């Protein structure tokens, strides 16, 4: 654990590994009759929101709030890197069913779009398997350390569709990390982009922990 930045704005840079405990999926890549997850990474925002929920920093709501990533991320006392793996894997395609009968009430307009293929009741996904290890970092603003905050050496967060995936976080030795260019842009910061994955997920070149900590300190 190393501290970087100005005296009044210390950022704690924490190298972290994330090990998947259960499968999880995202609607990331279009494949025949469904979607597949990007297997080589876990997005920084997924980790950030999962960590905030695990630490009890999210409010209970009847309905989801209006999406505002900049506002919600800015309220968190930490920032996160993208978590990456050098051994990406996906499980075999899994058929899922959207229960239009119960969830949509058999409305005619819903039946029409389902028949046209825009809202399929049966579709396929591909999930990241258990046991995958991803490397990344958590940057605690003003000295915040989520592990100390929870008084735990390990933390379990939920990620993926419907928060169905469970990921174990633990501190590890320092390593290089990648930041999300799209997240930097939310805070009016520009970073070079090495790879475009999705609109909200664009990989920067690798950063040392020190340089990454200096960069995310600006994300306020």
Keywords for this structure?
220 residues, alpha+beta, 6-stranded antiparallel beta sheet, 4-stranded mixed beta sheet, 7 helices
SSE layout:
Blueprint: E1 2-4, E2 11-20, E3 29-31, E4 34-36, E5 41-42, H1 44-54, H2 69-74, E6 78-80, E7 83-84, E8 94-97, H3 100-104, H4 108-115, E9 122-126, E10 133-141, H5 146-150, E11 154-159, E12 165-171, E13 177-180, H6 181-186, E14 195-198, E15 201-207, H7 209-216
Parallel strand pairs: 4-9
Antiparallel strand pairs: 1-2, 2-10, 2-12, 3-4, 5-7, 6-10, 8-9, 11-12, 13-15, 14-15
Structure summarized in a few sentences:
With 220 residues, this protein is an alpha+beta fold. Helix content is 22%, strand content 33%.
Q: What can you see in these coordinates?
A:
- By secondary structure, this protein is an alpha+beta fold.
- The chain folds into 2 domains: 2-25 and 36-89 and 129-216, no CATH class; 92-126, no CATH class.
- Helix content is 22%, strand content 33%.
- The strands form 4 sheets. Strands 1, 2, 6, 10, 11 and 12 form a 6-stranded antiparallel beta sheet that branches.
- The two termini are 22 Å apart.
């Amino acid at each position: 654990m190393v501290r970087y930045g100005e005296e009044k704005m210390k950022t704690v840079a924490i190298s972290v590994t994330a090990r998947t405990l259960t499968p999880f999926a995202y609607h990331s890549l279009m494949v025949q009759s469904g979607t597949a997850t990007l297997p080589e990474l876990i997005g920084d925002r997924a980790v950030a929101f999962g960590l905030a929920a695990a630490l009890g920093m999210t409010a209970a709501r009847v309905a989801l709030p209006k999406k505002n990533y900049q506002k919600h991320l800015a309220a968190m006392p930490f920032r996160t890197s993208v978590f990456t793996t050098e051994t990406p894997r996906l499980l075999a395609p899994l058929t899922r069913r959207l229960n239009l009968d119960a969830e949509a009430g058999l409305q005619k307009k819903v039946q029409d779009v389902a028949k046209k293929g825009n809202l399929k009741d049966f579709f396929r996904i591909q999930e990241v398997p258990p046991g995958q290890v991803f490397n990344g970092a958590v940057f605690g603003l003003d000295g915040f350390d989520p592990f100390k905050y929870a008084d735990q050496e390990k933390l379990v967060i939920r990620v993926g569709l419907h928060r169905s995936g469970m990921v174990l976080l633990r501190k590890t030795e320092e390593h290089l990390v990648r930041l999300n260019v799209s997240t930097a842009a939310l805070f009016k910061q520009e970073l070079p982009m090495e790879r475009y994955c999705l609109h909200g997920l664009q990989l920067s070149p690798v950063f040392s922990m020190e340089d990454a900590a200096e960069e995310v300190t600006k994300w306020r």
